[in-house]
Amino acid sequence: MNKIKTINDFDFKNQTALIRVDFNVPINELSEITDDTRIQCTIPTIQKIISEKGKIVLISHFGRPKGVPSKIYSLKFLTDYLSKKLKISVNFCENCIGKTVIKKVKKLKNGEILLLENLRFYKEEEKEDENFAYELSKLGDIYINDAFGVVHRSHASITILPKFFGEKKCIGLLMKKEIQYIDQFLSRKNEKPITVILGGAKISSKIEIIETIINFADYILIGGGMSFSFIKKEGGKIGDSIIENNKIIENTLKTIFNKYQNKMKMLHLPKDVIIADSFNNNANTKIVPIHSIPNGWMGLDIGPVSIKTFCKIIEKSKTIFWNGPLGVFEFSNFSLGTRSIAKAIANITGKGAFSLVGGGDSIASLKMENCEKKISYLSTGGGAMLASLKNEILPGIKAIKL
Fold first, then answer.
1. The domain at 188-388 falls in which architecture?
2. What is the pLDDT of residues 185-194, one digit of tens each?
């Protein structure tokens, strides 16, 4: 952290701050925000610059429009929300680069904010295009990255844009906090037992992480859809349960099983699972051993024995990391496993344990139980938080250091 400049290192009076934020928030069919955590966490950075009589240009992505402009993925719906939250009128520009944008930026007065359209309407954003980054760089005097949720991505606004600002680049208050808490987790290896809980549907995003954490964790609890890849590797029957059929995943799993045979005792898979005959909340259900799921049935939540086993491990832990639900928690009949884990983590945190939780689904389950404020730190970036566990400098942070 000492080598990275923050917004506290600059005076923003009469300066235009180009802030890369992560406003990729979940919305419902009425375009209403269902979880504004990422926006709320960036507001302190915005308010500090405004209080110093600076000007602000906000840039963000939203969804996956794949380089094609679309009303569905427009950021315009955020202007009213931001104006109410900040108690300042937030203006909107329907482009990210070009003469029209530059004119609007030049007209900004101290204390004013301009939100630009979705960065991913330009295919150049995800291709790390240098010319696109250069055009964006014309819109500010100081570059700020406060978008932890995408700091692990090699995108133009994250990795290329900062280099056009020389020494006038830094991280925001949210990014500073994220880095500090992840560093705290990685430095608390003596606070044992250390328990890492990994869930969610995809194993591809977590398989490399397992190879890292197996070297310092005391317990690794695996749940959710990703657990079925392990069960299949062990020769179990998983029925119609979700699984990623990927040769690379299979080979990596094989490597883990062979390389870390003496450490496999720390890896805990569910013993039982609640299965359903279709993917909906009102499906027929029963509880079976996770290695014996019949054809035509799929595992949608961990069972009561697994819940008890996992919670007992959490209750004796001193350091906890959690990413990903243990089942299809958005269906009320398959949410007990995830909600039980959320409560167990909140309870042990209240007794002095350090807990770090990230990922939209994990945070949503904590909110279901009204215990999100009982966690040591809630990270705004699930994928970025996981990538941080590799103990490597993430692309977006590296770009600020250069």
1. 3-Layer(aba) Sandwich (3.40)
2. 887 666 899 9
